Amino acid sequence: MTWKTVEYAGWGRFYRAKGELARPERASTLDQLVRETPCPAIGRRRSYADGCLNTDGRAIDTARLDRILSLDEEEGILEVEAGCQLGEIVRLIGPKGWLPMVLPGTGFATVGGAIGMDVHGKNHHHAGSFGQHVEAMTLHLPEGRRKVTPADKLFGATVGGMGQTGPIGTARLRMQRTKGPVMMVTERRVPNLDTYLELFDNSEATYTVGWIDATATGASLGRGILEEGETGAGLVPPAKRGRRIPIDAPHFALSGPIVRGFNATYFRRIPERGRTVVKPLEDFFFPLDKIHEWNRLYGKRGFHQFQCVVPLSAREVLRDMLKAVGESGLASPLAVLKRMGPGRGGMMSFPTDGYTLAIDFPARDEAPAMIRRLIAMAVEAGGRVYLAKDAFAQPEQVDAMYPERETWAGICNNLDPDGAYATDLVRRLNLRNL
């Protein structure tokens, strides 16, 4: 197998690495690679920071291990290779009346990555996390392939385990039936944070998500647009055409005045009375995927995303976070609020019952201090940050956020005593230290 030295980055383009990558096309080649050179597996590098990087080391790129192997249309069980993109599953299997139980905000995420980061979606309050719907998976280890099911303690270390138990080759996923090939989406303006949280708490919709105007202050703090969605029957409207960002945007493109003006316009695009629209599945689940390489909008320096979840009782913490961000002038147009339920699939999984807030920040000099302040607020409130997107958490904060870390680290270290699967994220946060 050929190893190629490349420079690569996470989706935020701030953390970068140089190392050797191999791209196997067959499971047998993956077997050979893991026997000869145990190393972490990475997919489409949709983790925002350094979770998919291995500086000066080797990594296995699973992009070519992307086959759909079988679909039991009676039971809704899908078997796929780990490099299969979730968007391809929606495109190919959605018309057959089946969808993955959980879909994150991008269809470019792979099944292996969705397991490794135990991703969540717009229906977490009902369906839990991605890993909770994995019936089995196959790990490719130096001693051979190992089938892992939820009855195996290794399952809990793999789901949400950031690839530290070895490369995933295949997975069996439990799917859900849809009511039809389209999404029926109700959109409404929300005037402030208190109203938002009440609407989330009382919504009976299967899918809910809120865009937040992170520049708003005062009485409008936390205003935004709430979307509630259900699958439905009807003619599939044409999907919006994909556009590509051809160049890195200049520094001033996301300056404070421009972002505030954009957010105000975007907020008012929804009529005061609200509206219901019909969307293709992909347009609802993966709204930014139609803008290819949208991360270039943040310029050459890239961007960071802060995402936390805080307990339901920590409403005032959310208010303090949004106030700090609004007064800083650092926010971008991308900020999302969701209601989460208690479900999670693994020891190091991010989801937990509460409200989750995600905000993008252009990688300016002032951003790290702002994000560290937000992380500290989340930790103090009994919440946690999403390690798939984290750039600035400190090692001493991790155990407070992830109380099963030591147990998880023990399993990983027993399986991989030499730390061959460690990534830049794992080293930065000392995640496997005991």
Description of the molecule:
With 434 residues, the protein is an alpha+beta fold. It folds into two domains: 68-178, 2-Layer Sandwich (Uridine Diphospho-n-acetylenolpyruvylglucosamine Reductase, domain 3); 182-397, Alpha-Beta Plaits. Helices cover 26% and strands 26% of the residues. The chain is built from 13 helices and 20 strands. The strands form four sheets. The chain has an eight-stranded antiparallel β-sheet. Strands 5, 6, 7, 8, 9 and 10 form a six-stranded antiparallel β-sheet that branches.
What is the structural class?
A: alpha+beta
User: If classified by CATH, what would the architecture of the largest domain be?
Assistant: 2-Layer Sandwich
Task: Categorize the overall geometry.
Answer: globular
CATH class of the largest domain: Alpha Beta
Q: What is the third-level CATH name, the topology of the largest domain?
A: Alpha-Beta Plaits
Strand residues, percent: 25-35%
Please indicate the count of domains.
Answer: 2
How would you write the strand order of the largest sheet? Answer: 15-11-13-12-18-19-17-20
Distance between the ends: 35 Å
Largest sheet composition: 8 strands, antiparallel
Give Rg in angstroms. 21 Å
Number of strands: 20
What is the helix content?
25-40%
Q: Segments where pLDDT lies below 50 for 5+ residues?
A: none
Task: Tell me the number of helical segments per DSSP (H or I, 4 or more residues long).
Answer: 13
- What's the mean pLDDT score? 94
Determine the oligomeric state from the structure: single chain
